[in-house]
Amino acid sequence: MEDWVHRALARWPNVPALFGWLQLDRRGRWLVRNELISRPQIIDTIGRNYAADEQGRWYFQNGPQRGYVALETAPLVLRVRGDGDSVQTHNELIVEQPRAVYLDEEGSLLLMTEHGPGAFDGQDLPWALERLRSAGGESIDDALPVALALPSGARTALTLRWSAALSLPVQRLDNAEAPAALGFQRDPQPDPPAGSALN
User: Fold this and answer.
1) CATH 3.40.50.10810, applies to 3-71
2) Where do the record's region annotations for Disordered lie (predicted)?
3) CB-based burial, 107-144: b 16+ in 10 Å, e otherwise
4) Cβ contacts of residue 142 below 8 Å, gap of 6+?
């Protein structure tokens, strides 16, 4: 978070959070009330002040106020950098330490990174698919349908070759199960009022 955010939080610590206004689509674009944000200064400010709370709800800290973000896929959208050899998040954080790779039922790849869970932008998914390898030596054209047919939670015979020194096993994970498995909320909601009883 930027210094001005910390100063605003210290000055106004109890500003109510906003829900249902801000969205992040599957291409890493920000929207306010379903309207695309196009001003680079606003996009950069959101990206620099984007984080998650302890419940896995991602938000933009706009001065003293949090704006919680509805996610179309994952909290981060991954893109191949201009060098063609490295990956960054939609808010320009370089991914250096991927920890796990997941394949959903549609063939999309999710990556657990040091910055949080991310999904490849559809335009950059071919970069990742080209780096898939089959442990059994089969061609990817043959191995990928087998992996897609596995139940969610199963380990596939695929690995993702991230670098010369790092290959990660690929696990099947249905899209609907990704938030619980990877610790984020796609549709964050306010906390229940203090003292309210659950029915």
Assistant:
1) no
2) 179-199
3) ebbbbbbebbbbbbbeebbebbbebbbbeeeeeeeebb
4) 134
Listed by start position, the domains of the chain span 3-71, 76-181
* Residue located via tokens 């910055």: 115
Beta carbons of 71 and 116 less than 8 angstroms apart: no
Cβ count near 9 (within 10 Å): 17
pLDDT band at 5 (very low <50, low <70, confident <90, very high): low
Amino acid at 117: P
Strands 109-113 and 30-32: unpaired
Cβ-based neighbours of 182, under 8 Å, separated by 6 or more? 74, 102, 110, 112, 117
The model carries a pTM of 0.88
Which residues share a beta bridge with 93?
none
Q: Tell me, what's the pLDDT at 83?
A: 85
